[in-house]
What we know:
The chain is of the alpha+beta class. It is built from eleven helices and 21 strands. The protein has helices spanning 34-37, 224-227, 233-237, 240-246, 282-294, 313-316, 352-368, 390-393, 398-414, 428-436, 446-454; strands spanning 8-15, 18-23, 40-50, 55-64, 80-85, 88-94, 101-105, 119-124, 127-134, 143-149, 153-155, 163-164, 192-195, 219-222, 250-253, 298-303, 307-308, 345-346, 373-376, 419-423, 440-442. A six-stranded parallel β-sheet has the order 14-15-16-19-20-21. Strands 7, 10, 11, 12 and 13 form a five-stranded antiparallel β-sheet that branches. Strands 2-1-3-4 form a four-stranded antiparallel β-sheet. The chain is elongated, with a radius of gyration of 27 Å. The mean pLDDT is 95.
Amino acid sequence: ASLKETQLASFSLTVDGNPVAEVQTDTLGFMFVGSQQGIGMHRLTALATDTAGVQDSVRFAIMVNPPPNNVPAPASIVDGFNPVDNSTVTLSLYAPFKKFVYVIGDFNDWQVDEAFLMNRDEVTQDSVRFWLTVSNLDPDVAYGYQYLVDGELRIADPYTELVLDPFNDQFIDNQTFPNLKPYPQGKTDKPVSVFKIDESQYQWQVETFQRPEKKDLVIYELLVRDFVAAHNYQTLVDTLAYLQRLGVNAVELMPVNEFEGNISWGYNPSFYFAPDKYYGTKNALKRFVDEAHKRGLAVILDVVLNHSFGQSSFVRLYSEGDYGPPTPENPWYNPTPRHPFNVGFDFNHESPATKALVDRVLRFWLTEYRVDGFRFDLSKGFTQRFSTDDSQFRRFDQSRIDILERMATKMWQVDSTAYVILEHFAENSEEIVLSDFGMMLWQNMNVAYSQSAMGWLSDPQRSSD
C-alpha cells in the first residue's frame, strides 16, 4: 500500500467553545478584544484538520482582568502573611508602580482566578500596596503560594518564613527537616512561599537570659554546614557542652537565613525571614538558642544587609530579566553598586523602603528567635557615597555613620542590650564614632592571635601585633 499525502483542510479558532474564525490556509488572524469578551478567564482552542480528517489542536487561555479594587489596606496588617482567624488570612505585598497582582497557590490549584485578584491601595504612584483576604482555609494545612505580578512575574512572598525550592529541596534529608512540603512540580516555577495558620509554636524554657557584658565576650564563630557533618541544629545542640568547655560565652552563627543553593557560607541571601532549610526547621533553631541560653551562651547571628542575590523577591520584583540587576524603580536596591567591594545587588540604605525592611528583619530575629545580637557583614558598604577603590571607600563618611546609628537606635528600641558588631574596616576616626555610640567593631584579629599563640612574634609576613 502506498502512503497518501494529505493537505490542510481547515484551521479554526474557538473562544470558550464558540467558533470565531476559520480558514483553509495555515495562517489565521483574530483580534481578541477583552472588553467584548467580558471579564474572566477565556479558553481558546486552535484546531487544524487535514484532508484525511486527522486533527491536531493547541489550547491556551487569556485572562481579562476586572477593574482593580482601590481599597485601603486594613491598618492592622503588615506586608506578608497575616492570620485573621482559624480559616482566614490576609496577604499583603508592597509593590509600587505595579498594575495588578494575583495570588496563586494550593488553595486555587495555582490557577489565575479573578476571585484572587488583590486589592490595590495606592497612596501615590511610588507607594502602592496590594492585599487580599483568603478564606475557607484548613488551619492544619501548609499552603504554598506566590504572587503573579502584572501577568508575567511569579515571586514568593518576600516575608515568608518558609521557602520551597524546585531544585535544592530534594537534597535535604528528613532528619534535618522532617516532612518538608514537596515543591508543586508542574504547577508553577521559581521559589514558592508557604504559610500555615495553626503552626506548632516552640515552648521556650529560658524566659530571661543575662547576656555577657560586651567587654567580656568570647565569641566562637561557626558555619553550621562545616562544624557538624550532619549540618543541622539538632546535632549542633550536642556540641554546646564542648563549646562551653572551651571557655567561650557566645556563639556566632554564620548566615542562617535562606540563601541560594544548599552548600554556601550564606553570604548570598535571598529571603530574610526564612531560616535556610539545609540546617533545619524553625523550631530546631529556636531550641538551639534556648539550649545555648541554658548554658549561659549568647547567640549572635551574622546578617548580610549590604546586598541580596538575584533569587530574592525584593530583587526580582524590579529587575532586568529573571534575576537582576535591579531597575531604577526598585525601592530597595541601587541599580549600580555604590562601592567597589559589593557582591550581589547593593541595598540603598537611604531608601525609606530599605530602612523599614532592615528594622523589621532585626526586630523579627530578636523577638521571634530571641537571638542576642548581630554581626553585620560588610557594614562599610551601607553608604550611598560612590567610590571606586578602598582608599575612597574607607574615608570618614558621616552619611554612613548616620545610617548605622539610625539602625542601631531602632534595634535598641526593641532590645536595649542586643549586640551590634560591625565588619567595617573604615578609617579609625569613623570607627571611634561608632564605638562611642555603643557598637563593637569586628577587626579580624585571627591571624595576629594565631601568630601569638604559636609564638611566631617576628614573622614579617604576618604580624602578631
